[in-house]
Description:
The complex is a heterodimer. Chain A contains 11 helices and 12 strands. Chain A is of the alpha+beta class. Chain A has 2 domains: 140 residues, Beta Polymerase, domain 2 (2-Layer Sandwich), CATH 3.30.460; 141 residues, no CATH class. In chain A, strands 1, 2, 3, 4, 5, 6, 7 and 8 form an 8-stranded mixed beta sheet that branches. In chain A, strands 9-10 form a two-stranded antiparallel ribbon. In chain A, strand 6 and strand 7 form a beta hairpin. In chain A, helix 2 crosses helix 4, helix 6 packs across helix 7 and helix 6 crosses helix 8. Chain B folds into 3 domains: 112 residues, no CATH class; 171 residues, no CATH class; 250 residues, Rossmann fold (3-Layer(aba) Sandwich), CATH 3.40.50. Chain B starts with a helix and ends in a 19-residue tail after the last strand.
Amino acid sequence: MKLKKQFKDFYDEICIHEESEDLKEKRDVLQKDIEDNFPDEMRAHGIELKKSDIEIFDQGSYKYSTTIQAKVIDRDIAVMIPLDIEKYSDPRKIKGYLRDAVNHVAARTVKIKEPCVNVSYYENGEEWMHIDLPLYAKHNSKIYLARGKEFASQYSWEIADPKGLNDDLCCRINKNEQLRRVIRYIKKWRNDKYENSTLDHEIPPSIGLTYLACDCFVSSITSEGDDDLTALQKTMTNMKNKFQLTYVGGELTKADITRYLPVEPFTDIFEKMKDASDSYGITFYNRLSTAVQNLADAVNVESEHDAGKYVKKVLGDQFKIPPKQTTSSSVKSKREHGFG
Amino acid sequence: MDKTEIISKILDSYEEITITDEREDIVFFEMKGKEYGCWYSKIDQDTSSPFILVKNDTSYDYPHILPTSIPVDKNLANQYRYVCLDENDSTVIFLQSFEEKIVGLIEKLIKLLSLSDIEKEEEFQKEFLFYWNEVADCSGIFNVYLGQERKFQRLNVYKNNNGKIRFVANGISLNDVDEEINGKKKWKHLPELPAFYIPITDKRRILPPTRDKKWTAENIQMIVCGKKFNRISHDSYISLGKEKIKTNNVAIVFEMEVAGNYIDFTAIIRFKSAKNDTLLNKIRQEIIEVLPVVSRRVDYYYLCKQIGNETSLLDKKVLLVGAGSLGSYIAKEIVKAGVKEITIYDKESLVDENLLRHTVCDFWVGHSKAVGLKYELETIHPEIHINAVNKNIDNNLLISEIKKVDLVLFTVGSSDVQLEMNKVLKNKKCTAKVVYTWLEAGGENSHVLVIDYSKKGCFQCLFTDRNGGLINNKVNKNSDVEVYKIRNGCGGTRVAYGNAVLLRTTAVLLDVIRKVFEMPESLNKLIDITPISVMDMEDMFVERKCGCCGDENNK
């Protein structure tokens, strides 16, 4: 089996296994602020909210342990409150009250984003962490996500099932460590290849990649242990094969990928990417194809050193290439030591 | 072709290399923006190898480029530093031609200069202690005694009159800590320097200090409260928040795993004030200086790991009956194999004639062998604790001692003593493993017998015939041989057998003891040792008709 140690070292390198103590402390303080101040803010606008009615829970990669190192720590914490959304039909206002509840500390910069309230932390003028607070309303036994920027014309309470989504992903990923690793490799690949991308919806979303990886995952275990190279190669090949391609005059003009959420609102995770530009899907497909080709070369090539070079093209500089094996017949290296 | 020409020709064949200068014994070339020199010795030796220097490189942020300058120019116009490209003894230089040596060097240099950031970090971490000690303050000597457990803790700090400082983990007891010199304790507690052990669980981005990149508060804060991920365990972090400090200095022994080994490095951290606060807060807010110091990890667990000893012996207690020649050899070696606690029984005193086949020195002539052995063993390492009893063991003492030990070792010559003790151990259902070892008359052959008294087989089986009758030790090979005895004038005798048999027997015994604890369920066994062979007889000695361990109806 090729590159076993290199994959292990790479995984150790990119992994974030748990919240850092600093993040944990900042999250605890933020949570307390929400619990202490959000009811007052709501009350000031004539909405009754008890501290005990606020439910705060984990969302995203920290919940199902697929977090990888990134330039900025990205944490998702859901805030759920009971609210009559027919009476309070403008989610932008409620998000504004949540923002005001936490926007009183110099260390934080709080902004309202389309799907959440975003709390950023800066050091020496650079953002090092943000905590996204998606706000949910419980109404008539249904849950709704507050969507819309502060002054956007489009806004809505969108039906959602954040806990169902958590459960679904935890159920798929937990107890399958190779899948968890493959998801992290793919996220790392995405981060590297889209390092310079800044446009909205240009980058394939983590949740989309995670679901595609789960759907397409092929386990590979040999007598020597887990073969992550083969598992990654097969999984990414299957992901590539999920695209619907449109050619005009031999030229690829559209590469669509679709994955519906398995819970409310059952929408296509890649819809926004598709709506934004056809070129985004093509770029995604082309980059995936290149990765698949490099991984196939890594699987097929005999030398472990050469295989490492191909994988490095996919996963980046943090993947270490094993040394070349000496094929010289004359014995020049030796395994011995002093006798101290 | 002379050597300079050979080097130049080889260098010239690399696209990425440009030759800049040639001298009598060194060829300079440029690669990746820096100038290097390939230097060879004019005194041709098959076992010498050329090496690479970097010229006028003022940065220290690259691994394997050593910090100290080499005086190549007589007038010191340029600074040269050695580029370390080989581990000692990794190649057989003798087998290589001069050309192969040069090609090998250049290939390694190219590889070194092509390292990715993550590979550079790995190389720096491999040589972490070299860099740490290079910038460290060497004025103090800090010996660190840690145990097997990798858990945050406050260490006990002791200092002696010579300025030596010891950081000692809880649970480690040192044999000289209560020693006195002129009525004063040799080691004193040092409350003004609290010390802590912090195991690092994630070493990413931890680089050693270099000459141009000293460690500051940020490095310590990154380890203790890193923003992106934790480098210490949650438990350590919580403990740091509980430990109160009211000094303006603290010593921290960090430990991290590098390439399968644990390395320990110590920093003295100076705070702005001595105000009473938690260690965590002081690290976050009060650090004004980080001073790397040279420390040496010297605990028994660590030393055993360094030579590949079985660490399961570290917590085993041994009773050694007999501190004669064989007992002294065995005692010394089992201590070096990892046993830290031994109780030794022997009432004899050392005489000059014992010296050449006993491990204690002539200082102990006229004194108790057991006591002499205690002092010699305890000087091997302060974690060794020997209880020397200057008397021969009797039944009652044996009954009391077996409750406290994991292994009983008989190294007495007398079969009568061993037979008597064997009966006691069987009757008392001794749960400790018991090893009998003895030299045959004549001293050529020896034997090791391992007994677990919950199983069949005991020392008396060796003295029992097929019918249950008592006979002399039947596994001795040449019991009837004429032995050259030296009489010492008071009924005692000494056999002149040299000392090789002691080494042979001790070597076998070390393996036996290791296996006894590795495989506690293994069968009782007898091993015969001759000058040319070691024969494991498994359980052939078991006799159902033995009067001690045999079936009741056969007695």
